[in-house]
Write a structure and sequence with these properties.
This protein starts with a strand and ends with a helix. It is built from five helices and ten strands. It is an alpha+beta fold and about 160 residues long. It has one domain (about 15-155).
Amino acid sequence: MTYRCATCDEEHDDLPDLGLQYPDPYLAVPEHERAHRATFTSDVCTTIDDDGEHYFMRGVILIPILERDEPFGIGAWVSQSKSNFDRYVAGEDMDPTFGWLVNRIAGYEPSTALLKTQVHFRTGKQRPTIVLEPTEHPLAVQQREGISLDRAWAIVHPYLAQS
């Protein structure tokens, strides 16, 4: 299947990784209030609500594809404590940290929102990897056991239709 990449605007024939542009809590802030209640870059985000300030970072959920050497990546967002968020922004070396997955990924029931994760930091400019807690949630099972190429395409298709 050929698709046009939203990042480079080129046509590709291979399976694309999936990237969720925003954390769901950012989208919950009314657009006209975001300038006062949120900050956003492609790597980090903060929001303010009645419960206080919340901190998020973007990472990658890597899912093995059974017929391939390279995994399928889902760029997603996780919550972080203020201290971990500040350390990440400062570029400090970090051990894995706890975070809640804050995206609903299409095609998964029950919802993927608020699954428990460990965030593993990588060197250089690479985004951290997100490892889901080993539960029976379909996404966690797929991350542990792998998926077929057809299943990976089924995950990507709803997002390609939005492009």
